[in-house]
Amino acid sequence: MSAFVEPLGQSLPRLEAPDKAVGSARFIDDHVLPGMLHAAIAQSPHAHARIVSYDVGKAKALPGVRAIVTGADLQVRRVGGMLKDETMLAVGKVRYVGEPVAAVAARDPETAALAAQLIEVTYEALPAVLSIDAALDPAAPLIHPDFASYVRTMEGNSRGNLIWDSELAEGDVDGAWRHCDEIVEAVYETQAQQHAYLETNGVIAEPEQNGRLRLIATCQSVHHVQIRVSEELGIPMSRIRVQVPRVGGGFGGKHATNIHSIAAWLARATGKPVKLILSRAMDMEIQKSRHPARIRIKTGAKRDGQIVAREAEITLDGGAFADESPNVLAFAMLMARGPYRIPNARIRGRAVYTNKLRAGSFRGFGNPQATFAGESQIDELAQRLGLDPFDLRLENAMQPGDRWIGGQTIPSCQIAECLRRVRDAQRKAKPLPPPKPGRKRGIGVASVTHISGLMGTSASVQLRTDGTVALNTGCVDIGQGSDTAMTQLCASALKLPVERIAYATQDTDFSPYNWKTAGSRSTYMTGRAVVAASGVVHEKILEHAAEMLECAVADLELRPGGRVGLVGVPGKELTFKDVALRSQFRAGGPIQGFNGLVFDGPRFDPKRALVARLAFDNLGAYAFGAQCAEVDVDEVTGKIEVLRVWSAHDVGKAVNFGSCEGQIQGGVAQGLGYALYEEMVWDDDGRLANPSFADYKIPGSLDLPAEIVPIVIEDPDPTGPFGAKGVGEISLVGVAPAIANAVAAATGARLRRLPMTPERVIAALEGPG
Amino acid sequence: MSERLEYELDVNGETLPVRARPEATLLEVLRDELALTGTKRGCNQGVCGACTVLLDGEAVRGCLTLAANVGTRAVTTIEGLATNGALSPVQRAMVESGAIQCGFCTPGMIVTLESFLRANPKPTAEEVREGISGNLCRCSGYVKIVEAALIAAGGKP
What we know:
CATH class of the largest domain in chain B: Alpha Beta
Radius of gyration of chain A: 27 Å
Structural class of chain A: alpha+beta
Largest sheet of chain A: 7 strands, mixed
CATH superfamily of the largest domain in chain B: Beta-grasp domain
Number of domains of chain A: 3
Low-confidence stretches of chain A: none
Strand content of chain B: 15-25%
Order of helices and strands of chain B: EEHEEEHHHH
Distance between the termini of chain A: 67 Å
Number of helices of chain B: 5
Radius of gyration of chain B: 16 Å
Number of helices of chain A: 19
Low-confidence stretches of chain B: none
Largest sheet of chain B: 5 strands, mixed
Shape of chain B: elongated
Oligomer: heterodimer
Distance between the termini of chain B: 52 Å
Strand order of the largest sheet of chain A: 3-7-1-14-11-12-13
Mean pLDDT of chain B: 96
Strand content of chain A: 25-35%
CATH topology of the largest domain in chain A: Aldehyde Oxidoreductase, domain 4
CATH superfamily of the largest domain in chain A: Aldehyde oxidase/xanthine dehydrogenase, molybdopterin binding domain
Helix content of chain B: 25-40%
Number of strands of chain A: 31
Largest interface: A-B, 60 and 57 residues
CATH architecture of the largest domain in chain B: Roll
CATH topology of the largest domain in chain B: Ubiquitin-like (UB roll)
């Protein structure tokens, strides 16, 4: 039996990594079930049209076709987040090019695809709404004419094509401007980014005994898929079982989607397992994107650099369905003041419908948009004031005990330390050879903040009769390393070698509830549940041992390696196996610990702030960071080359140091793609012009700097598991403004639109600053 | 339904009978006919590199290779790299360096590195970045993959 080594903070190799390295790890498309059929989807060619009729005759006549479903076959049960506005297939009208209008199950993928092409749908085209301005035009066609009848969780002051309209304010912004010596104001625009997980989305649905339905879904929460399919198909949750295989990346793009209900519908219609795996093109056309945003922002300061006021107006393009737009909007608004002591702030946020792919959750969740605007503007302000950008940030940085906009107190906050650490790291780094002729070099910085706590989660820990432990949570590892991190937390709490803990895969029949792998919340939220559930097991072990050793619980201690003994008496001890056998067969029953919690941090303070129609009221556990980029700009070609990035993060406590670094490096890479390359482009007819990896460029190894330097700062959060906070998203958030600020420092050109392509760089170099 | 061709493929040292559509790619035959699902389909367009396999030791895209044209060339997939259950040096380095996150690009990345390190056993970090530039990874930023390659080559990252 291996000895106990304290696992917290170690760069323990991922538990599942050997399986992934030899090709035996099973992802959704690696599963084959007996008698399995294959599904294909028929898509809308129109951005906005009324569906007149369907003709499935030719498709049905194709040998091998087993079932066809169109919107006409559905009993309409709309699903969604705050607003239930979406059906798995278009009903009555289509709202974006590519929207699923019908689906087929057939004996093989080729037959299914051919049948989908043979489905004939007659449309009556409607004028399409393809931009924020078009959506807000009072004369715009309504994308959801029945909007008023939709079920909603709260009111968002919606009207026309406006999904949501909210406000967040503190202090007296209107009165504050006259106290400012300098005021800067600008509009920043960001694009639709695609998650581009290497594994496309997919699902297998299979009828099970007793009228139940089983889904194997590549997803970020089995519980979320279960509830969506239940609502959409009108089946009780108890009759739907969802399991998850290994997941090939998620980044917010693999929550419950239309494909889960489509496969479930076809499985019920045929009585057979049905597999639906999206092609890369279809994944890009029918899943979701990051919200394109337009942000007008204004910041004012005293001559000495004290920031007095900030006002922002954020407008998000939500696409054809609301999805998580209200929540993404709320989070963007919450991040728009930034981690600064700005006493007067007012943020207005709106999200609109357009006839394009829905926008939804994506690593950062509204924060990259807000931070691009806010952190670019801090540098514009610094330039106006003649101050160093680092110094301006440090002068205004929040301190522990300060309040976030909305009134929540921040117990741990190392934003100033993060800024100092990236500045020092950059200054002490070995200087690079000077830029080649025609190129200019600059340094840029951005402050970043994110949360790590929201919603509910739970964990159960069970001691087996051989002294090993079964750990169950609903937390899905989508590649970020939560299987290993949860195991490390449990191992540390029970002083057991990690080999003696088996972390179970997620299955709605067995897994304790978890909201989602999202919001950088797994380590902080589910980690807390794991530590607390382990604590329950710890207590029960001591209680049994006290009876067995005829002593008081207070005289006992857990010893490393699965033993419990009398304090101060080295030989007097029992193994976990002794205790587990006794409890299971003689007294008390199996030793099990459970803990469930919902985020319990401070809420917004209505006395302090105006919080109107914000689609979140209970989130927090704020984490902080600073990111610094060193770039070269070629003034002839407009090409930006990022040479080095330093990314400092206040993680509370690194549970797995290597995974923490991996999250930071990967986030920087995805943020660099957002900054420089990635953009989903729709043509004038609303058709996605680049639904492929050939035309939508994600960074390859040569597109990234040779040095992405993670700097991990550990200031334990009093509420986190062993002090840990989240680090899943924050490293993406500040990359774009850090690069934009470096470009401005190098050339004087200010880029206010992402991605910063060579064409836009040239235009900014030539245009007025 | 199109006709099926019958032929043999030498895969991971074993001669295997195949019955597949004439237009089937090597990726499709490996995954769907031979149940060798370690080779991944990421884009099916030759861009992402997740389907990389070796043909007589040379890294190729499984999705761009017609299976019926492989002939007698030896196919090596991710399943064929470990010997008697022991990971290859590249596989071991990828595991121990934390270079594997979601793991979907991993088989293609490892197969590419096997081929690359045979041709260039003592590469620099820059050469490794060049060598894996045809394999996309969305999780890691490639930093730890480059470290793993250098460790596998016997050097220090």
